[in-house]
Structure formats: C-alpha cells, structure tokens
Model the fold of this input.
Amino acid sequence: MNLDIHKSWKPYLEQEFKKDYFKKLTTFVLKEYKESVCFPPEDAIFNAFNYCHFNDVKVVIIGQDPYHDYGQANGLCFSVADGVKHPPSLINIFKEIETDLRIPYPESGNLEHWAKQGVLLLNATLTVRAHEAGSHQKQGWETFTDAVIKTVSHEKEDVIFLLWGGFAKKKVKLINEKKHLVLTSGHPSPLSANRGYWFGNQHFSKVNEALKAFGEKRLDW
Done:
C-alpha cells in the first residue's frame, strides 16, 4: 500500500503507521488488491489527505465506506470522478445545497474542489472490495481514521464536523466540542432523506456562517 501521504499530515500520523494494527492492515489491503478488484484505485486511497492538507482543514465530513462499483470511488467520501453518474446520497447532498444556498445543481460529482478548500472528506474505512459493502471494515481502518479525527480535534481549533447519520454521530466522542462546532443530521441516503431526516438541515449555509464567525473564508460549495 502506497503510504505517500501529504507531508503536512506526516508529523501527526507517522506514529500510527508504525503500530502493529496498521502493519496488519497494510498486509490485508495489499493482499486484497492483489487477489480481488478493490476500490478506490490504490494510488487514491489517501486522496482525502492529499487534497486537503492538515493546516488547511476547516471542515470534516465523515462517511462510512467507499463506493463499491466500477469507476465511482476516488478516495474522497461521497465523491465520484468527473463524468460518473451521481450516486443517490450525493444527489441528495447536491439537492440540499441547491435549496439551502440557491445555487444550481452541479454537473460533476467530483468533490476535489471542496477538499482543496479545506474540507476533509474522510471515510471511516478507506478501501472496499468490488460490490461488497463493508468488506474491509474491522481490519484496522476505523482505528486509523478515529486517530485522524482525534488528532484534528486535539491539534486544531474551530473546525466544523458534519456528522450525517447514526454511524457518523458516534464519532462525536472523539471530538472536543468546546473547541469545535459539531453539526448533526440524518444521512443523505434515500432511506433517511425520504423520511425527513436530511433535507432542510441547512448545513452548508451554517458552515459558511460559522466560518465567517471564525474569521475564515466561506466555502464555494
């Protein structure tokens, strides 16, 4: 597994890479990519960190698994490559942005431009076997990504954490709410959104209002 993670993260995460659990995780991931079709592409596994550098983190969005169909996952949670059909959760994210901020629905589902503005698009599990949701869970990724969340919480101030759905909401215990803003809502998946737990949360305008209050530049969603 290519551990060429952006240099801004290395002082904070190098100790994780040396731990036994991460060595076992690396062995597992290398074997999986060799023997099965896995996503995202191996060189995109750490894209969340390579597009959003540590010093730039303003917002953290926590997903669960990468997309597990061909051509979808690009290493950023909820994001797909340019030209790829938008998955249902991403459609609902864009619909909420459309009504919240009154901006047009975007053509591309690629969220790299969010990451480059300081949005850490972090899946709890960074890899998955094709067509098998959850196939790489409980192999060590969650330990690693929990350490990332704790590190951001500990080392930074005034970060906005967006916790969507029951899985993400459990991560609140890793965050110091005295130093950071935590916004929660239902998940953007159709199951949750159609029950009224997602639409109308106005998280995107709330993020921009908070960033302005923190003296930071608003995001171009």
